[in-house]
Design goal:
By secondary structure, this protein is α/β, with parallel strands linked by helices. The chain has a single domain, classed as Rossmann fold (3-Layer(aba) Sandwich), CATH 3.40.50.300.
């Protein structure tokens, strides 16, 4: 196991390499590109906050991962992605080609697969304190006892202090009390084909379940336009770009899953910590 661990110096070099992608922090919110979402959230996705993304069914793991990837592309900056092994065993590994289809350059990202929820949360606490990180994706399986209201408060306060945006992915889980700024439910949705029956844009059904300081509620069918890196209303065909072809996963009827099989090469530098 020890020889599979990258050295601390190598990890520092990787973090330094992604720092150049860090966006200016003048914007408090980043527009999603979708008018309805931006109005409901007061301007888009808030930086330096904790946002929860829920997939209540294991089959929607790919949808929640896709949505998190899209948000990370919109937010910009370097990405540290922390995954619990349970998610990886149930859903498969992140796949570089799938991430690139959504528009994420894997060079912007460092991936760590950790054995249990406590290890993930400990790593997240360290990552979020680093202001040179743009987005921290924290991916947990089901409802771990370690993720209580106190733990979410710590993450939210650390995000506010550093300016790092946290996307907390909850797979096969139901919402519980937390300190998140927003809470979203994510499901796959059918996409409309482009001209010549080409695969359409990745399409999701997203629902704003909760947000702090503003009314909750709102459900949208959205398309992801990779060329412009924005969300569009799925029922507005005039906004679809016929020259954008996104390779379908499986039948192409739902959002492409950024997962790969066991024989696929890792998407980014794999980091495994023990203890």
């Amino acid at each position: 196991m020890a020889d599979s661990l990258p050295s601390l110096s190598a990890l520092k070099r990787r973090i330094a390499a992604i720092e150049q992608h860090r966006p200016a922090m003048a914007e408090v919110h980043v527009s999603s590109g979708h008018d309805g979402i931006d109005v409901a959230t007061g301007g888009g996705i808030a930086r330096g906050c904790l946002h929860e993304l829920f997939a209540s069914e294991p089959d929607d793991a790919g949808s929640i991962t896709g949505f998190a990837t899209m948000l990370a592309v919109r937010l910009g900056g370097g990405i540290i992605w922390l995954r619990q092994e349970g998610v990886q065993k149930a859903s498969g590994r992140l796949h570089a080609a799938g991430l690139m289809e959504i528009g994420l350059d894997p060079a912007r990202m460092i991936l760590a697969v950790l054995p249990d929820p406590l290890s993930v949360l400990r790593a997240a606490a360290d990552v979020v304190r680093c202001p040179d990180v743009g987005v921290a994706v924290v991916e947990l399986w089901q409802r771990p006892p370690a993720l209580d209201l106190t733990a979410s408060r710590r993450l939210a306060l650390a995000a506010e202090a550093s300016g790092v945006t946290i996307l907390l992915l909850r797979v096969d889980a139901e919402p519980t009390p937390s300190a998140a700024q927003t809470r979203w439910a994510v499901r796959a949705a059918a996409s409309a084909p482009l001209e010549a029956n080409a695969p359409g844009h990745p399409t999701l059904e997203i629902e704003l379940l909760r947000q702090r300081g503003r009314p909750a509620g709102g459900r949208w069918h959205v398309e992801w336009d990779r060329e412009r890196a924005v969300f569009l209303a799925a029922d507005r065909p005039a906004e679809r770009h016929a020259n954008t072809t996104i390779r379908a996963a499986s039948s192409g009827a739902v959002v492409p899953l950024p997962f790969g099989g066991q024989d696929d090469a890792p998407a980014v530098l794999p980091i495994r910590r023990t203890g």
